[in-house]
């Protein structure tokens, strides 16, 4: 990728070890300010491990060693002076299973906001509504903000989870197979929300669903055996990949 | 909520229709230029043929992308395939317009002693108008997406075909009666052939429109695939 383009997050020579076993080998990958980058590859290829390294999710796993540069606004997120709570606000994560907390929709979204400095009820209302709108779920939940979020459908729960991350006004959203636990219709609704978000945010999505990667991402990175095999414009990856391994994987010959 | 595919499809549709209009204008000009012995228009058509070819290439590229990225099925797939097939036909029609332009220039630069045939030219003009009308109708049928409209195009194209047979006979009669008309006559025959093929191709597109609507591959005018 051309250096002159403006990247929000740049990782250089990322190596990651689970104890003695090396799981990532020299990954160099950069992410623009907005748009969707899809990370694809077979199980065990390292794509999720890499995604989780982008907001230091491995910190608490014993025996994990992370090497390399992770430049975010020109600061290394692994440097000692980087505040972890602040990092996770600015680089939020959405998981495969929706993760609503067992309280109201409103409190779910307000959760991250209340962690920070004190804000007025009025401001809180505004921020919650904005986040739910951005996540594309406002119209469905606006009349039951006080209801327990566990009572929502899977697709709604996932979009509320997205809203909770958005409420803290992140720059980057990491999504770990965000629709694999949902039915096709709910998946599509979540995809549509992501497509709206890509205009303003940098989204990085791990997906096993290649059609999903093809449908919604602008850039696709293909991982295999802990290595970044190929990265490029999504249309190139799906029409004319340079590497034979990529070709075989996207056409379903392995993985 | 519209899918990404729908948005992309709309764009593809726009590109296809815009190319259709471009080809329609070109055919129209080639026929008018032929009637008016207007070599300047003919040269312009020849110079600009590459624009049509470029449009075709861009549309083809987009259809490949849509198939690879969205893996469409059922009606979505048929829409994409219809455009992929019809766009080559449009390009071919553009070539015929260019070939008519070549004939216009050739007839104009003939040596002395050669004679034109005003009566034949009048009939060819009439046929040209019919062929361009058929072409306009196929673009309308594409927009209306109606099998009835597609069938009408096929019927009109058959009329063009019948007219071409009559004119051909007239040309041959003239050529036999007056050897000075042989050179021009040869070009007239070619132009009549191109116009007939233009109308035939409108039927080809009509067949793809039927496929798009019904999923059935049909032959609307069996046997209509030659220059004569």
From TrEMBL, chain A:
The protein's superkingdom reads: Bacteria
Q: Name one GO cellular component term.
A: membrane
List the Gene Ontology MF annotations in alphabetical order: ATP binding; ATP hydrolysis activity; phosphate transmembrane transporter activity
Query: SUPFAM superfamilies this protein is in?
Result: P-loop containing nucleoside triphosphate hydrolases
Presence of keyword Nucleotide-binding:
yes
Q: Name one GO biological process term.
A: phosphate ion transmembrane transport
Q: Where's the ABC transporter domain?
A: 9-250
Keywords of the record: ATP-binding, Nucleotide-binding, Phosphate transport, Transport
How is this protein named in the record?
A: ABC transporter domain-containing protein
> What species is this protein from?
Oenococcus oeni AWRIB429
From TrEMBL, chain B:
**Name this polypeptide is given:** Phosphate-specific transport system accessory protein PhoU
Could you describe the subunit structure of this protein?
A: Homodimer.
Q: Does the keyword Cytoplasm apply?
A: yes
**Record family assignment:** Belongs to the PhoU family.
List each copy of the PhoU domain by range: 17-102, 124-208
Coiled coil, from the record:
none
Show the Pfam families listed in the entry.
PhoU (PF01895)
**Chain's gene name:** phoU
Question: What are the TM regions of this chain, as residue ranges?
Answer: none
Keywords of the record = Cytoplasm, Phosphate transport, Transport
Q: From which domain of life does this come?
A: Bacteria
Known function: Plays a role in the regulation of phosphate uptake.
- Predominant location category: cytoplasm
Give the originating organism.
Oenococcus oeni
Its GO CC terms? cytoplasm
Q: Name one GO biological process term.
A: intracellular phosphate ion homeostasis
């Amino acid at each position: 990728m051309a250096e002159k383009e403006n990247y929000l997050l740049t990782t250089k020579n990322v190596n990651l070890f689970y104890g003695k076993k090396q799981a990532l080998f020299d990954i160099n990958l950069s992410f623009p300010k907005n748009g969707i980058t899809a990370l694809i590859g077979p199980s065990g290829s390292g794509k999720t491990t890499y995604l989780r390294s982008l907001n230091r999710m491995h910190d608490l796993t014993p025996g994990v060693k992370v090497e390399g540069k992770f430049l975010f606004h020109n600061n290394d997120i692994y440097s000692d002076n980087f505040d972890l709570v602040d990092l996770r606000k600015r680089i939020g994560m959405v998981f495969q299973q929706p993760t609503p907390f067992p309280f109201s929709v409103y409190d779910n979204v307000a959760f991250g906001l209340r962690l920070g400095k004190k804000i007025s009820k009025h401001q809180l209302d505004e921020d919650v509504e904005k986040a739910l709108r951005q996540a594309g779920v406002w119209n469905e939940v606006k009349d039951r903000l006080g209801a327990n979020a566990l009572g929502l459908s899977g697709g709604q729960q996932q979009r509320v989870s997205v809203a909770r991350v958005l409420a803290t006004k992140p720059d980057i959203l990491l999504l770990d197979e965000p629709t694999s636990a949902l039915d096709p219709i709910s998946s599509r609704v979540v995809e549509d929300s992501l497509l709206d978000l890509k205009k303003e945010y940098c989204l990085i999505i791990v997906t096993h669903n290649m059609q999903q990667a093809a449908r919604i991402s602008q850039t696709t990175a293909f991982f295999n055996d802990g290595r970044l095999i190929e990265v490029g414009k999504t249309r190139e990856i799906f029409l004319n990949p340079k590497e034979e391994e990529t070709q075989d994987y996207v056409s379903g010959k392995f993985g | 909520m519209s899918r990404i595919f729908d948005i992309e499809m709309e764009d593809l549709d726009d590109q296809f229709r815009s190319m259709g209009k471009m080809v329609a204008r070109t055919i129209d000009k080639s026929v008018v230029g032929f009637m008016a012995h207007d070599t300047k228009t003919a040269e312009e058509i020849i110079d600009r043929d590459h624009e049509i070819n470029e449009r075709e290439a861009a549309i083809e590229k987009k259809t490949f992308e849509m198939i690879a990225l969205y893996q469409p099925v059922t009606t979505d797939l048929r829409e994409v395939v219809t455009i992929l097939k019809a766009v080559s036909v449009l390009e071919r029609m553009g070539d015929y317009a260019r070939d008519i332009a070549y004939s216009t220039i050739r007839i104009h630069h003939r040596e002395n002693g050669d004679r034109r045939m005003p009566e034949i030219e009048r009939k060819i003009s009439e046929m040209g108008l019919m062929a361009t009308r058929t072409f306009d109708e196929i673009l309308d049928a594409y927009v209306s997406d109606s099998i009835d409209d597609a069938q009408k195009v096929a019927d009109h194209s058959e009329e063009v075909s019948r007219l071409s047979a009559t004119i051909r006979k007239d040309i041959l009669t003239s050529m036999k009666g007056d050897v000075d008309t042989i050179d021009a006559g040869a070009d007239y025959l070619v132009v009549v052939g191109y116009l007939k093929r233009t109308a035939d191709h409108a039927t080809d597109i009509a067949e793809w429109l039927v496929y798009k609507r019904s999923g059935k591959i049909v032959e609307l005018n069996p046997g209509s695939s030659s220059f004569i």
